[in-house]
Amino acid sequence: MAIHMTGRNGGIGGAGALTAVLAAGLVLAAFAAAALASGKTAGLAVGAAAALHLVLLARALLRPSATPSAATAILLATVVYGAGALALHSRFAAFPGSGLVGLAILHVTVLTAARQWRTLRKAPPSAMIGLAVTFAYAMIAALAPLLAPYPEAAIVGSEYEPWGADFVLGTDNLGRDMLSRLIFATRNTISIAAVATALGFAAGAAAGLLAATIGGWIDTAMGRVVDILMAIPQLIFALLILTIVGTSITSLVLVIAVVDATRVFRLVRAVSMNVLALEFVEAARLRGEGLLWIIRREVLPNITAPLIVEFGIRFCFVFLFISSLSFLGLGIQPPTADWGSMVRENAALIVYGDITPLLPAGAIAVLAVAINLAVDWFLHTSSGLKE
Amino acid sequence: MNTNAGTAPLLEIAGLRVEVTTDDGPREVVHGVDLTLRRGEILGLIGESGAGKSTLGLAALGFARDGSRFSAGSIRFDGQELVGAPERQLRALRGLRVAYVAQSAAASFNPAHNLIDQYAEIPVGRGLKSRRQAQAEAQEMYRTLLLPDPGGIGYRYPHQVSGGQLQRAMIAMAMACQPELIVFDEPTTALDVTTQVEVLTAIKLIVEKFGTAALYITHDLAVVAQMADRIMVLRHGRVVEEGETRRMLSTPREAYTRDLLGLRAAARPAVPAEAGEEPLLRVDNVSAAYGGGFKILHDVSIAVGRRRTVAVVGESGSGKSSLARVITGLLPPSEGRILFDGAPLPPRMRQRSRAHLKRIQMIYQSPDTALNPRQRVNEILMRPLEFYLRLNGRERQERIDRLLEMIELDPGYGQRFPDELSGGEKQRVCIARALAAEPDLIICDEVTSALDQLVAQGILKLLQRLQDELSVSFLFITHDLVTVKAIADEIIVMQNGRVVEQGARETVLAPPHHPYTELLLSSVPQMDPDWLDRLLAARSGATG
Amino acid sequence: MKTILMLIAKRAALGVATLLVVSLILFLGVELLPGDVAQAILGQDASPDNVANLRRELGLDLPPAQRYLDWLGGVLHGDFGRSLATGREISSLIGPRILNTLFLAGFAAAIAVPLALGLGVLAAVYRNSVFDRVVNIGALGSISIPEFFLCYVLILWLSVNLGIFPSISNISADLSLAERAFRTVLPALALTIGVLAYMMRMTRAAITNLLARPYIQMARLKGASPGSVIVRHALPNAFAPIINVVALSLAHLVVGVVVVEVIFVYPGVGQLLVDSVARRDVTVVQSCSLFFALTYVLLNLIADILAIATNPRLLHPR
Questions:
Q1: How many Å apart are CA B339 and CA B279, to the nearest integer?
Q2: B503 three-state secondary structure
Q3: Do you find a cis peptide bond into A233, omega within 30 degrees of 0?
Q4: DSSP code for B270
């Protein structure tokens, strides 16, 4: 891979990109070193992740179509983050993995924003707020152990203490700090929801693409299976399976992934069929192109916009779903903090007019609204989106 | 055609400006147009796409599409100002004194009601006629317009009636309250050329019988020559030229008008066949059917020689596109076989080798959907070079540059995405993509049908040049006889899945003809304003 | 006419087939339970003889195919088997609860459907007006709010602070209709709000789509009044999309019942389902799931059939 020393506009592009990569490398190395200090396996894991991160970042910044603005943005972001890490170095040193994930999320967000700057500039304030809030949640989830004043499951006070200096949002029904649990719940719910959505999405999208492109009896057969699965309401299906296999995080993720995959299948198949009907696909087929080429180069690039939208919507449904299941006592089990189960545990307070139990529910609602705002706008402008 | 009766103009548009709201702000699409129409007069509005003719047509009803508005100027109908008039006043005019006939009758009729109810809606709704009266009048109108089964056709639903008949039903509906002005918006553009004659006749009948004034919008100069007393040429929202029909046709003043007129341009001399040479492509007694068992090709046999251009002409349902699909292997024949370069070709595309696939290339009708919007021109052209010719690196780039040169585009075009290209430029890229594979045969499936006429002319010229420079055979599928006359060496006429006539160009175009060929040839509108009248006289004379 | 009847018959047959497959899946769920059903009923300390006897009594030693058919036959006669936890006849447990759940869902639907359709149509007709924007924002909010949040907010406001409605809906068979309705108001309200937003958005989208059709523009060009455009031209073509919306929303409603019943302690099938899942009482879960799946499939079936029956192209074939 040749390194082009000039960006698209020539001049300082390449040097800027190199500086940004170096700066990121420094911060990542610091995290890896901190991880190594705490243990060999942790060190290896974080070190490997850091290396991967650096390679991907370098690839993104140093390829010919990269813009100098992307490099500048990354440099700025890394410097700010690094400064923050330095200021709170004890915390970051204690949780280098979280620091790494936080940096990764920051980099991805900044890169995407730099690339899509022109489209973003035209976004209405509602969409900007939506995106900003979603980003904030992601960072809280990543940096949870650093931000929370108390550990997740530690009993640090008496039950139902009021809001005060020691416990900003009071304590819950067992005497654990509400604020800390809220922060950890953010991490737990979001990461589990992210994994479940990603799994379901990957499976559903792959199946949908294949069914649409191959067609024939494979398409019909898959369609029938999906129809049957969708004939059972999501919640009921999940409850049934969870009764049988028990409520563990793995089974939760798998059940949600399976249920979600059916909906994603339908959507991806529908949009793929729209693209497959266009003549350039027939031109490719007539050339003799194989299945993989057609899916990867002809169909996929033309369905990215609806896919992104669907991912956002699915993610929303999934964490709402997980919260509902946890609320019913059938999702994430205590003592793991989770928004839904927190509402359930503290429900008694409502009778006394205290709104504390509504805080976790509010957290869910705010994130859902934010994602919906961003997705609504994206839907509106997706026709003009280009790399 | 009616001469003007009455003194004051029926429709007077002055300095009209129309603005459209886009994401980047308002954009003007009509820049100060003046238009006058007298009672009983027919004015033809002609222009390419984007000229603003439809917008003007709708303006005659005081209607601005969603997202557009009249930003300046005035529209006076019989002295009444329409710009800024309250909706109630405009509604009182529409359907009653001014009516509209849309391009697509199938889309403009409500699928939930039958034809006669939609006819009667306005007269009955305004209290002008009783339901029974309106229905009787509808049937009479259908008879005037020469619709089959005038008594019963009104009780059918839109999806049960064919395109040409539906278009006439829409004209009948427009006449329901006997308006003083009808706006015809490209009424025959979507129809076959033989059906077009029927609808044009119907329009003439109606307009003459009731003395209605009309705005006739079209992109086809030959059609408008038949219908209009005066012609107005529009381009990019401005009036280019205006005048009485015969004068415009014989002595156009503006260069653009002359370009539009000159479209029936020089024909390339036909290349005579070389005797005894083995044809490049031979289709022997091929029949084919789609899934439901419905046969679309019956015992078709054609041959395409080397370095020849063979045109396949037919209307919708003739099977010409299906023939192309059979040749490329997308539709396996149920009977018969295909021989390429002497050897039989596997019927299914999947069974063919890459070498086979390389030798037959296809260019499609709609350049908008024939190019992957996410690939730059370079990538589009690169793929066949890489795939068939296994070229890489510098050699490949040179080849791409040469291809761009061949299609008359600058090398800079390589970096562009398809949506940064015009329709004509996109079609050129499609041609280059086909040429990149260095094929022996290129199938052109209606490649100029979706383009504006001047752009289509450019593409045809390019293809003619390529025919001379390269040793490629072309199988040119089209419904447009004018194109065929310009570029074909041989002509094959198809109807309902059968080959009706085939042979060298001169032979097929000269009488005696197969009756269908006769019908087809005579239905093509000519620039002569009296053409339609003469045709109708000849046809009714022939039937006694 | 014949084509329509044939299409409807085909769709109905497909619906029945779907139901059978779904019942099979639900049955198989029990089969996959690790361990032995009889053991689960009698507990860990039961003697092997007792377990064997119970197995024979419950018919567990018969081949699975026969047991499935027996179970299916039983279900069709209203015999759902026994609860693993309590040993009671499930039909006696589930019977009254089915009525309760249907009452709650029906109550909510009666409010939600007309309201949502009306608001949706108005929002589509007055697109981009202030009214439309307000309605859209409201809809966005309710879709994002988890069901239980909504319930607790309602309880907080209407029950605790204002003290109008009871926060627990303990209804029983011997209550009068009025009293029953009164105690069901809060849960019905929660359900309504949850479904309202969803249904309203879909209606608005469907009607907006419809109003963009060329024949609507043609109607306006003919000089038809706005009212006439909506009633004569849009509405007859709106049946299919609206039926679709209503059916999907009702299906949504049926599932939303579960959470609401738990919070308000409403004696319906949903509450029974959740309790049984917690106790891993698989046979009860199976039967409750069957009820929900049945309702869901039936609603979708009715929606499809109505869509076929109102399609003008099918009513008047070529």
A1: 9
A2: strand
A3: no
A4: P
Residues on chain C touching A231 (C-beta within 8 angstroms): 18-19, 21-22, 293, 296-297, 300
**Tokens matching residue B125:** 């709704």
CB of C299 closer than 8 Å to CB of C253:
no
Q: What is the pLDDT, as a whole number, of residue C6?
A: 86
Contacts of C233 in chain B (CB under 8 A): 110, 112
Closest by Cα among C137, C307, C113 to C199: C113
Residue range A255-289, pLDDT digits in tens: 999 999 999 999 999 999 999 999 999 999 999 89
Tokens 């391009």, located at residue: B103
If you average pLDDT over residues A299-312, what whole number do you get? Answer: 90
What is the residue type of B234? L
Task: Tell me how long chain A is.
Answer: 387
**Is residue C141, in this structure, part of any structural domain at all?**
yes
Contacting chains of B (3 CB pairs or more, <8 Å) are A, C
Q: How far is CA C159 from CA A251, A384, B17, B255, in A?
A: 38, 50, 61, 81
> Is there a domain that residue C217 lies in?
yes
Summarised one tens digit per residue, pLDDT across range B501-533 is: 998 888 888 888 888 998 888 888 888 888 888
Q: Would C247 be classed as within a structural domain? A: yes
Task: Name residue, tokens 């249904």.
Answer: C199
* Per-residue confidence (pLDDT) for residue A8, from 0 to 100: 45
Longest Cα separation, chain B? 79
Nearest-by-CA chain A residue for B354: A288
Closest-CA residue to A278 (of B384, B364, B332): B364
Query: What value of ipTM does the predicted structure carry?
Result: 0.84
Interface of B with C (CB under 8 A): 58, 61, 63, 65, 90-96, 99-100, 102, 104, 107-113, 121-122, 125, 156-157, 159-160, 173
Task: Classify residue C83: in a domain, yes or no.
Answer: no
Rg (CA), chain C: 24
- Strand B42-46 to B213-218 pairing: parallel
CA torsion A166-A171-A176-A181 (nearest 10°) is -90
Whether C87 shows a pLDDT value over 80: the answer reads no
- pTM of the model as a whole: 0.85
**pLDDT of B368 above 70:** yes
B388, B358 contact by CB (below 8 A): yes
Q: How many domains does chain C have?
A: 1
Give the dihedral of Cα atoms C134, C137, C138, C141; nearest 10 deg. Answer: -170
Neighbouring C-beta atoms of residue B321, cutoff 10 Å: 18
B125 exposed, middle or buried (CB, 10 Å; 0-12, 13-18, 19+)?
middle
CB C248 within 8 Å of CB C257: no
B383 touches chain A (CB under 8 A): yes
For the CA atoms of C63, C65, C69, C74, the dihedral, rounded to the nearest 10 degrees, stands at: 50
CA angle A106, A110, A111 (to 5 degrees): 115
CATH number of the domain bearing residue C135: 1.10.3720.10
Q: Supply the range of the domain harboring residue C237.
A: 96-281
Q: pLDDT by residue (tens digit) across B129-176?
A: 899 999 999 999 999 888 999 999 999 999 889 888 999 999 999 999
Q: What SS3 class is residue B311?
A: strand
Pick the residue of C126, C128, C220, C221 with the most B CBs within 10 A to test the interface with B by mutation: C221
B245-273 pLDDT per residue, tens: 999 888 888 888 888 887 655 566 777 66
Q: Which one, of B398, B378, B382, lies nearest residue B390 by Cα?
A: B382
Q: Are B219 and B480 in contact (CB under 8 A)?
A: no
What does DSSP say about strands B281-289 and B11-22: parallel, antiparallel, or unpaired? unpaired
